[in-house]
Every structure is written in structure tokens, then in C-alpha cells.
Design brief:
- It contains 24 helices and no strands.
- α14 (296-308) runs antiparallel to α15.
- It is mostly helical.
Length: 575
């Protein structure tokens, strides 16, 4: 929704006028001597007495409580007002409040179908309801409402543009989110609430320079909890875990509502989980659910942490409860893998079938689930199908998460040479892959192992287990076994290079992602200058060098898939 902006009083516009003074009267000027007849001493004494009595009475009245001056408590905002505030600020709203807002705005647009503001608010509420509950059927309703608002008011409709950007982001359609978001920023560059959506869109498109620029603008416009939570996500992606934890802690401390605070506590739990702190992540997730019983992401997080703590029965209950309330494909994948770890293959297959059904339903509503489906197919289904789907996703939105998933799918399909290129992109800090992810390091380590690059493989598998020794119930044992099979590095360090590949264990330094390494296949940033307000998306560019001298790994491809141009602004299309 559109947020009212307070306009500052222009400098030099004149002296301030005290309350109660008429603007036309000069402030502080001497009052002229009255020209009427002079009063007698007796009359003057009577007038002074009356004035004194008036002063006393005025003092008594000032001391009495006044609703206008905050003496009497103002009534608390109702559920509709609370939801309007939350939706307008881009923060989570309580589900009962959202339901009340949807009922209220549906009634309004039935009575006044040309009310563009109510249509925009209704669309934003539908989007938030769909996001909070994973009920993807709300997204087509949101799109219809927002486009109706735009048709009623085609020009300067900031609320509709902002709502369409948020809807596209919720669907995972980052190109469309970018287009609508940048249109909103052009219309109101000082409106901070658009920038979080743009930052997520740029992240999904792999345009890391645009992310940094948009974050700078956001923090210059707002230092509130929502902005701090966005900053925490960017810091996490840059590998600045301490900064991310501090920012999200500040966000949780400053949250205005229970739903907002629960969302930030869940984000803090995710950060603790990624660094392998099982108990701290569990504490954050539990606090989030205690504050907001509808914090289903935090409920699934409890399942993840409890499984890592070996409390499998509790973990299963948490996952089932989260799936019952918010049937997200990612939860089904995590629960299926936990069942598989426990030797319950039949139960795991039920979850995998559920995942496919959920992806089909969400796809029909325009949601992009290519990432979770690709990872599932690579590990539990058809790796060739995973490669096809993720190649198409890379063409659309070449972010770091897609690079990792595509590299892993190529490895599972037997194309390790090309797989390494994408694994390097996902883990190279210089080109955006700075996130400290145990899963990414594990994927890269196994690809390097199968290419005979024992030294880099050993390094990245050890890194995965150091970052988070519990990152996956199925993959951690495989990482431990692979690392053990690689053994210790040879005594005396790596052998001297003769200038020719010799297959030695420690010679394969290319693509290690470490400072001073060869950086093979890391790619160059493809984002260029743009006349758009923040930046244009660009894929990580082509790898420009082959592995260094003496490397036992193959040369990586020297070109990346050509990126299609961004589409013209328009509604998110269902895939």
C-alpha cells in the first residue's frame, strides 16, 4: 500500500508560528497601546482579579487528562489496521489480522469496484497470505487484484507497482520482480519499502553489484528492524556471519509486533543452523513459535535442529506439523531425507511424491520451484531431468544457489568437467559466492574428488564438515566417508611442478575459492552499467582461465550460457 510521506517545512519560509497564534499576526511584536478610554483604579483591580482567576482555572484544566494530549490511552489498533500497517511496511502480518483485512477489502471492492487503493491493498494481503501459508492459490488472486488496481489507475500507481514486485518475488520470479520494483523506485526513489524486494531480486539474478548499491540506499533511508533484517541476509551471502547475526539480533529486539519478531528470530535460527550451532538454532526457532504460533518456517527449523541433536521422534513431529500448516516442497524434501536416514524408505517415498504434487500445484499458480525440484531430482530421481530444468533456470535467473544446484546435477549426471565450473561459481567470493555453505562446499568437494583432484577435494570436504557438521542427515556420512578415503595429504607438501600435468594430489589448485588460488572457472561479473535506477541483472560471466600449471583437473569451459534480455514489465506468468 502507499505510505504517506511527511514533507519537511522549506528552510527560510519564515519564523515558526506558536500554537494558537494566527499566521497573519507578527510573532513577538509589541502590542499597540489601547486607544480606548482609561479604566478607573477600581475597574482595573476587578479586571486583574478576573484574569488571576482565569489563570488558576486554566492551570487546573491543563492538569486534567486530555485524550488529545495523551492523557487517556488511545484505543489499540484493530486487526485490519494492524494488517494494513504490516503489509504496507513489508513485514509479516499475523494470519488472523490478514484474514480480517482480506474480508474488509473484499467487501470494499465489491461496493466500490473503482477503488484502486483497496484493490492494491487486497492484492498485497493475498500475496502475504499465500507466502505465510504456502497456499499458492492466493497468488493468482493477488495478481488479478493488483492488475485491476493498475487498470483503474494506470499512472503513478505506486501501491500496485510495489505489490506486483512483491508478488513476483514471492513466486520466485526475480526478473519480473526486478522490473516492477525498478518501476516503483523510479516513481518514488525515497520510499524505502521497495528496496528489500529489489535486493532479493538482484540476489536471485546474480547481480551482486546491484545488491550492494540497493542495500546502501535502503540503509540510508531506513535503519529500522525490517531494513536490518535485509542487511543481515546480504551480510550472510557475503560470508560476514558475525555482522549478519548482529543485524538480525537488532532487528528482533526492535520488532514492533509478535509476527515481525518471530520472523526475525527464525532468521537468527537459520544463521545459527548454518554455522552448526544446533542448540542455539533450536532456541531461536522455539522462541519464534512461542511468540507466533503461525511461524511455520521456524517449526520446520525445529525439526532440522532436533534431527541434528538425535531427537528424531520430536523432529518428525515438528516436520509433520509444519507440513500440515504450510505444505512447502522444501519441508517435504527435508522430511523425506530424514525418513530415509532412519531406514523408512516407504515413508520417504510418500514425502517425495508429495513434493512432486506440491511443485505441480505451485507451478500452476506461477511459482518457480525449479531449485528445490532440481536438487530433489539430482539426488532422488532423474539427474538428467534435473540438468534440463536447472539449465533453463540458469538462463532465466543465474543466481548463486542455481549455480550450485546445476553443478551438482551435472555431477550426478556424469558431466564432472562442466559441473566444476558451476561449483566454482557458487563458492568463489570474488564473484558473489561468498556464503559459507556446508552444502556448497560438499558438492564441490565430491566433484573434485571424482575428477582426481584429491587435494582440493580434501580441502572442501573438510570445510563442509567444519562449517556445519550436521548440514544433512544423508550427506554428512557421505562427506565423512569420502574424506576418510582420501586420507591425509602426502608428507612434505605438494610435489614440485614439472610444467606438465602429473596427476599429483596437491597440484590441483584451480577453483579452490581460497585466497591466492588459481580461481579457475570462477567467471567474471556480467553486470554492466544500466540507466535503470539501481542496476541491471547480469549473470556471472565466462570463465577466463584454465586450471593453473600442474593442475590435475580439466580445463573448465571458457564461456557461460548467454543470458536473455529482461522482459518488458508485465505480470508474472505461470510456468
Amino acid at each position: 500500500m502507499e505510505i504517506e510521506e511527511r514533507q519537511p517545512v522549506p528552510a527560510g519560509s519564515g519564523r515558526a508560528v506558536p500554537a494558537g497564534a494566527r499566521p497573519e499576526e507578527p510573532v513577538g511584536a509589541q502590542s499597540p497601546e489601547p486607544s480606548g478610554p482609561r479604566r478607573s483604579p477600581r475597574a482595573r483591580r476587578a479586571l486583574i482579579g478576573a484574569l488571576a482567576g482565569g489563570v488558576v482555572l486554566g492551570g487546573v484544566l491543563v492538569l486534567l487528562p486530555s485524550p488529545d494530549r495523551g492523557g487517556a490511552p488511545r484505543p489499540a489498533p484493530g486487526p485490519v489496521a494492524r494488517a494494513v500497517t504490516a503489509v504496507g511496511a513489508g513485514v509479516p502480518a499475523a494470519l488472523p489480522d490478514l484474514a480480517a483485512l482480506i474480508d474488509d477489502r473484499e467487501a470494499r471492492v465489491r461496493a466500490r469496484p473503482r477503488d484502486d487503493v483497496s484493490w492494491a491493498v487486497l492484492g498485497a494481503a493475498y500475496t502475504e497470505q499465500g507466502r505465510r501459508t504456502a497456499a499458492s492459490a492466493y497468488y493468482p488472486r493477488a495478481e488479478k487484484a493488483l492488475l485491476t488496481s493498475l487498470s483503474v489507475r494506470p499512472k503513478d500507481n505506486l501501491a500496485a507497482l510495489d505489490g506486483l514486485a512483491t508478488l513476483a518475488g514471492a513466486r520466485g520470479d526475480f526478473r519480473t520482480a526486478k522490473r516492477w520494483g525498478e518501476a516503483a523506485v523510479r516513481l518514488a526513489p525515497k520510499r524505502w519499502t521497495t528496496y528489500p524486494t529489489l535486493i532479493d531480486a538482484y540476489t536471485g539474478l546474480g547481480d551482486h553489484k546491484a545488491v550492494d548499491k540497493a542495500l546502501d540506499r535502503l540503509l540510508a533511508l531506513s535503519s529500522g528492524p525490517a531494513a536490518q533484517a535485509v542487511a543481515a541476509r546480504v551480510y550472510r551471502d557475503r560470508g560476514r556471519r558475525e555482522d549478519a547475526a548482529a543485524a538480525v539480533s537488532d532487528a528482533a529486539a526492535g520488532a514492533a509486533t509478535p509476527s515481525e519478531q518471530a520472523a526475525f528470530l527464525q532468521q537468527a535460527g537459520d544463521l545459527a543452523w548454518e554455522r552448526g550451532d544446533r542448540q542455539e538454532s533450536l532456541d531461536h526457532y522455539r522462541a519464534a513459535v512461542n511468540i507466533d504460533a503461525d511461524a511455520y518456517d521456524a517449526l520446520a527449523g525445529q525439526g532440522r535442529a532436533l534431527a541434528a541433536l538425535g531427537r528424531n521422534a520430536e523432529a518428525l513431529r515438528a516436520y509433520r506439523a509444519a507440513l500440515a500448516k504450510r505444505p512447502a516442497p522444501r519441508y517435504a524434501l527435508e522430511l523425506g531425507e530424514l525418513y530415509e536416514k532412519l531406514g523408512l524408505g516407504g515413508a520417504a517415498r510418500v514425502q517425495y511424491d508429495l513434493l512432486r504434487d506440491l511443485v505441480r500445484q505451485e507451478s500452476a499458480a506461477g511459482v518457480d520451484d525449479a531449485l528445490v525440484l532440481g536438487l530433489f531430482e539430482a539426488d532422488h530421481g532423474d539427474p538428467q531431468a534435473a540438468v534440463r530444468g536447472l539449465r533453463a533456470e540458469w538462463q532465466r535467473q543465474p543466481g548463486i544457489a542455481v549455480a550450485d544446484a546445476l553443478g551438482w546435477a551435472l555431477h550426478r549426471a556424469g558431466a564432472d568437467g562442466e559441473a566444476l565450473d558451476f561449483a566454482v561459481r557458487a563458492t568463489d567470493p570474488e564473484h558473489g559466492g561468498g556464503v559459507r555453505s556446508a552444502l556448497y562446499a560438499y558438492h564441490r568437494g565430491l566433484i573434485e574428488r571424482d575428477l582426481g583432484m584429491s587435494g582440493p577435494a580434501r580441502r572442501h570436504l573438510a570445510e563442509a564438515l567444519r562449517i556445519n557438521p550436521y548440514f544433512s542427515p544423508l550427506l554428512v556420512p557421505e562427506a565423512q566417508q569420502a574424506l576418510s578415503a582420501l586420507g591425509e595429504p602426502p608428507a612434505g607438501g605438494p610435489p614440485q611442478s614439472t610444467g606438465e600435468p602429473d596427476g599429483s594430489e596437491e597440484s590441483g589448485q584451480s577453483g579452490s575459492g581460497q585466497s591466492g588460488s588459481g580461481q579457475s572457472g570462477s567467471g567474471q561479473s556480467g553486470s554492466g552499467q544500466s540507466d535503470e535506477p539501481v542496476g541491471a541483472a547480469g549473470a556471472p560471466g565466462a570463465a577466463e582461465s584454465s586450471p593453473g600449471a600442474g593442475s590435475s583437473g580439466p580445463a573448465v569451459p571458457s564461456t557461460a550460457p548467454e543470458q536473455p534480455s529482461a522482459p518488458a514489465p508485465g505480470p508474472s506468468a505461470a510456468r
